[in-house]
Amino acid sequence: MRDLKESSGIIRDPQAMRQRIAEDGYLFFRGLLDPEPIRGLALDTLSALQAEGWLKDGFPPDEAPLEPPARDFKNANFFGGYIALQRHEYFHALVHQPALTAVMRDLIGDDVFSHPRKVGRMVWPTRLGTTPGIYAHQDFVVEGVPDMFTSWIPFVDCPRDLGGLAILTGSQNEGVVARLHRVDLDDDAWATTDYRVGDVLIFHCLTAHAALPNTTERLRLSGDYRWQSAAQPLPADALLPHMHGPVPGWDELSRDWSTGEWVDVPEAVRTVERAGGEIPEFTASRYVRIPPQGQRDREHVVLAGIFNNMQDSFRPEKAVGEDAVIEYRLVSESGTHRWQIQVSGSRCLAVPGGEERADVKITTTLRDYLMITGGKADPVDAFGRGALSVDGDLSIALGQLEWFRD
Ligand SMILES: O=C(O)CCC(=O)C(=O)O
After folding, report:
1. Domain 2-272, CATH 3.30.565.10 — does that match?
2. pTM reported for the whole predicted model
3. Ligand 1 centroid – CA 165 distance (Å)
């Protein structure tokens, strides 16, 4: 793995910055932001987490040992702490520091804006087993906005062992690609650094990236902030707070803020409702090369993301003694996509195709399956109306619903 290339030398040169995105897929700025208010945000967050029971009492919050169990987006016990971060005005205000908005304007144009929805990361040590997101992915597959950028901002110093972000250089020019692998530490196409508070990593939505494992005994705190041009439609979900539902709406989150403008969007922006799991089409970019891609490949990319997530959200403690192969057959106009989930002891593998003998086969249309995984349809309901069929051991089909975090 290489060190990230520093871009401070080209910061006032939009053309050179765009050229670097075309070549490397990212820009890394050491010390771009004022670190002091970010350190304040981290300390306030750690205090709130200590009050929520994430950290042991009786220590200063930034020195307190963690109090397991680990918590992440998939656990109800996550939200007390996460809401405290989402309620913090500076969590939302920090991307409006002029040093960063100037770079984003040079890169994207005068109509650039940042998404109101901002993702906070409070990542537990990997050995305690939590947060998915350490597999390689492209943000375009998640958000569906062409030429969107992400700025990744550490709230605490993140030496490599705390599990900061790594970038797969070159991936930005491969188009939308299915990925089922993690970071390869021995591969020099991957790049990372020892991040310090104030640093900013900016990458294109086709640049594959992944978090490194957190091998320390501390939390990694950081934020993902997305940027786009007002000429592109905005996914309606991006107007809401992240994890809206368990996380309250803006009225409540912003009650004590000095202004709500941190989460405003330009009036001209058109929003689009996404059911989740749409097959993204990305035909031309201002920044990177886009190889031609067929419908079937695009469907495969979306499914790779879903099955990757499933593999990551496997709970071995719920599948003790189980040995099962579940095969999914997802039918679309382009043909049938076959995926196997192979569970054996504490291991779970998602395999495209897959040659193992399946204990149970689940067949539905790709569209119905995307509705189910997007939380817009219920699998048992789909089974009842005949939209989903189960062939083989029904007890495995039902039992496996418990083996994965939602
Ligand atoms: O910080 C992380 O763990 C993941 C961040 C990420 O995937 C993103 O910013 O898109």
Report:
1. no
2. 0.89
3. 7
Contact 120, 78 (CB under 8 A): no
Which of 119, 153, 219 best tests ligand 1's pocket when mutated (most atoms within 8 Å of CB)? Answer: 119
Q: Is 207 in the pocket of ligand 1 (CB under 6 A)?
A: no
Q: How far is the CA of 232 from the centre of ligand 1 (A)?
A: 22
User: Does the CB atom of residue 139 touch ligand 1 within 6 A?
Assistant: yes
Q: From the CA of 134, give the closest atom in ligand 1.
A: 3
Say what the pLDDT of residue 181 is: 67
What is the tens place of the pLDDT at every residue in 248-268? 999 999 999 999 999 999 998
3-state secondary structure of 225: strand
Indicate whether residue 165 lines ligand 1 (CB < 6 A): yes
What's the pLDDT at 356?
84
Output the pLDDT for position 406: 63
Strand partners, 244: 247
Calculate mean pLDDT across residues 31-38: 98
The SS3 assignment for 234 reads strand
Instruction: State if residue 150 touches ligand 1 by the CB under 6 angstroms criterion.
Output: yes
- Of residues 38 and 320, the one with the higher pLDDT is 38
**Residue 247: its pLDDT value, please?**
97
The overall average pLDDT reported for the chain is 92
The answer, yes or no, to whether any atom of ligand 1 lies below 6 A from the CB of 133, is yes
Residue 103: left (phi > 0), alpha (psi -120 to 50), or beta? Answer: alpha
Can you tell me the distance from the alpha carbon of 76 to that of 225, in angstroms, rounded to the nearest whole number? 24
Which SS3 state, helix, strand or coil, does residue 256 take?
Answer: coil
| pLDDT tens profile 163-213 | 999 999 999 999 988 876 678 888 999 999 999 999 999 999 999 999 998
pLDDT value, residue 134: 62
Q: Phi/psi zone of residue 339: left (φ > 0), alpha (ψ -120 to 50 degrees), beta?
A: beta
- Whether 143 is in the pocket of ligand 1, judged by its Cβ within 6 Å, is no
Query: Which of the following CATH numbers is that of domain 297-402: 2.60.120.10, 3.30.1050.10, 3.40.50.300, 1.20.1250.20?
Result: 3.30.1050.10
Which residue of 114, 145, 150 sits with most ligand 1 atoms within 8 Å of its CB, as the best mutation to test the pocket? Answer: 150
Domain boundaries, the chain: 2-272, 297-402
In single-letter form, the type of residue at position 402 comes to: E
